[in-house]
Amino acid sequence: MKQHEFLGRASKGRFCINGVDVFKYPWHSFGECAVVLEPDTKKPYAFSSYSVTSGDKEIRFFAGKFDDDEWAFYDFE
Disulfide engineering: 15 pairs with which of 2, 10, 53, 71, CB 3.0-4.6 Å? Predict the structure, then answer.
């Protein structure tokens, strides 16, 4: 299983990846999913892949919600 880097959590609808607040743009799913581990408990979750476009910059990431209803983000690469 590939280990995707945990980027962080967001509970207030704001989260930046590479300087782009991903909540300010529409998310486009592109059909991939990954099993990621919650960093504290190591519990596995299946998260979907998304991209956002800001100007000429495309940001790809995996995202989903943990049991505490917070969004969690992982790198796509």
Answer: 10
- CA-CA distance, 21 to 19, in Å (whole number)? 7
Q: What's the number of domains the chain is made of?
A: 1
What is the rounded CA–CA span in Å between residue 45 and residue 21? 23
Whether residue 45 is contained in a domain is answered as: yes
Residue 1 located in a structural domain: no
- Domain of 57 in residue numbering reads as 6-75
42: Cβ–Cβ under 8 A, 6 or more apart, which residues?
none
User: What pTM, to 2 d.p., does this model score?
Assistant: 0.92
Q: What is the pLDDT of residues 3-28, one digit of tens each?
A: 899 999 998 889 999 999 999 999 99
